[in-house]
Design goal:
- This protein has 334 residues and is an alpha/beta fold.
- Helix content is 54%, strand content 14%.
- The strands form two sheets. It has a seven-stranded parallel sheet with strand order 3-2-1-4-5-6-8, sandwiched between helices. Strands 7-9 form a two-stranded antiparallel ribbon.
- The longest helix is centred in the N-terminal third of the chain and has 37 residues.
- The radius of gyration is 28 Å and the shape is elongated.
């Protein structure tokens, strides 16, 4: 057998082996089958997890988790001089919480402290401009030296009251600084305190403007933008802490400004009073604390309107605008 014939047979054998390899490809085919099996398994696990989460949520709707005990906690209530912030401070003291009342109005904050001091906890006034990082750092250090490690933070600034919605155009920088930027200065100083304490609860209050833009014209764009930003901050913080296995809980509360009947006076007319009646700030604070004590990640005051906000996002844009127009005209600011 000549060299040429040997080379011919060798080339023929190599071509046959290559043809068989291309036809069957056992390693890659097995790898694809394995990947497909893992994907199907992940999808089945995901669907089962979603189904269980829905069942648990439905169960918790009718049988909510028990209220946790807050006695001995140290809470910062930012914006405690009036409205919901004041009522939260009072209710917290009644539950045995030591409360640092933060505000820039000395007189209003002192009134809050006087009312809150009737409870089991201790309340004290701290004057601080939360838009100033240095003042926030100084105030937090003072609170820690007097009360100990901070374990709860309630941010009640920046929620537009009914009266603020009928006033002149808000100042853009002030709105963003008070509603959004102040969160970052507070979190930079308070989060390390909570991590050292091994526990913590951050409560972020947002208004209905963060679920739907206002229908009162461009003058309300800064308010709506700030409220949307607050919700994004709360969700991002929740995700970050969840992945870091932290014991710090984040709660986002949607407060509907036309629901809380504080400073409303005769400025509001209700077209649908049976659905959108006012709620006293004390009742709103009680509902907020009930949700916080149950460690809810997100809820609203009143509770059913949170689901309405979700529906607005699911509906087609035109239908969503029609529903928003109906709800927005349900409250006229005269």
């Amino acid at each position: 057998m000549t060299i040429l014939s040997l080379q011919f047979h060798l080339n023929t054998s190599l071509r046959k082996m290559e043809s068989l390899r291309r036809r069957f490809k056992p390693p890659k085919m097995l790898l694809k089958l394995y990947s497909l099996f893992i994907l199907i398994l992940d999808l089945i696990t995901l669907l089962i997890g979603i189904f269980c989460a829905i069942l648990i949520a439905l169960y918790r709707t009718f049988n909510p988790p028990p209220l946790k005990n807050l006695r001995g906690e140290v809470a910062m209530v930012v914006g405690a001089g009036r409205g919901i912030g004041r009522e939260l401070a009072i209710h917290l003291c009644q539950l045995g919480v030591n409360v640092a009342c933060i505000d820039i109005n000395v007189e209003n904050c002192n009134i809050t402290v006087q009312k809150a001091s009737q409870g089991m906890g201790v309340a004290k006034t701290y004057i601080c401009n939360v838009t100033n990082k240095h003042e926030v750092d100084r105030t937090v250090n003072i609170i820690q030296s007097e009360f100990g490690k901070i374990t709860m933070l309630f941010h009640c600034c920046g929620i537009p009251s009914p009266r603020s919605l009928i006033e002149d155009r808000p100042e853009i920088r002030q709105t963003i600084d008070l509603t959004v930027i102040s969160h970052f200065w507070l979190l930079e100083t308070v989060l390390p305190c909570m991590e050292n304490a091994g526990k913590g609860h951050i409560v972020v209050l947002s208004s209905v403007a963060g679920l739907s833009g206002g229908a009162t014209g461009g003058s309300r764009v800064p308010l709506s933008t700030a409220q949307f930003a607050v919700q994004g901050l709360a969700e991002s913080l929740h995700t970050e802490l969840r992945h870091s296995n932290s014991n710090i809980i984040i709660t986002l509360v949607h407060v509907y400004p036309f629901i809380v009947g504080v400073e409303a006076g005769k400025d509001i007319r209700f077209r649908i009073p049976s659905y959108f009646g006012t709620m006293p700030a004390a009742e709103a604070a009680k509902q907020i604390l009930d949700g916080v004590r149950r460690n809810y990640a997100e809820f609203s005051v009143p509770g059913y309107l949170l689901y309405l906000g979700h529906i607005l996002r699911i509906l087609p844009k035109k239908a969503s605008f029609m529903l928003r127009d109906l709800l927005d005209t349900g409250v006229d600011f005269g």
